[in-house]
Amino acid sequence: MTEKSPGHASIPATATAVRAAAVAAAVLTVAAGLGVRAVSGGEVAKYAGDALYTVLIHTLVVFLVPWVRPLTAAGTALVVSWAVELAQLTDLPAELSRHSTAARLVLGSTFNAPDLFWYAVGAALAWAVHTRLTARRALAHG
After folding, report:
1. DSSP label at 91?
2. Which of 64, 91, 104, 132 could be a cystine partner for 97, CB 3.0 to 4.6 Å?
């Protein structure tokens, strides 16, 4: 079954459902990040935020490519997270962060090696949830 949108090719209904789930997951991820910040501080909030940052990137990958496999989405999210962190070894993210709140939120400003581990934790969590949801969807359709 497909649905038509004006001026666009047919989109499989499952792709639409996956994109809707990705948006819902992104909203939940942001809410979780804000919740962690509201109830805790310091390293707990920082490292939970790092993991959730990678989960959020994973949801973006799934939104953009709804048929992506869980391992590919998680790997892509991890590589992007690590690339952003490693970019902080240069002055560019810090300079952009001084001029833009959005850049500060997306790029950070200071390299912190433990962040690399917490990004991997977030990728593993996103992979596990995505794998479970994909398996559940396959069971429902097959």
Report:
1. S
2. 104
CA atoms of 37 and 104, how far apart (whole Å): 16
Q: Tokens 């912190």 belong to which residue? A: 112
Spell out the residues 6+ positions from residue 35 whose beta carbon is closer than 8 angstroms to its own: none
Per residue in 22-61, pLDDT (tens digit) is: 999 999 999 999 999 999 989 999 999 999 999 999 999 9
Q: Which residues pair with 11 in a beta bridge?
A: 3
Please state, for a pLDDT cut of 90, what percent of the chain lies above it. Answer: 78
Distance in angstroms (rounded) separating the CA atoms of residues 11 and 5? 8
Whole-angstrom Cα distance, residue 3 to residue 27? Answer: 25
Residue 130 and residue 11: Cα distance in Å, rounded? 21
Beta pairing, strands 2-3 & 11-12:
antiparallel
Whole-angstrom Cα distance, residue 33 to residue 109? Answer: 19
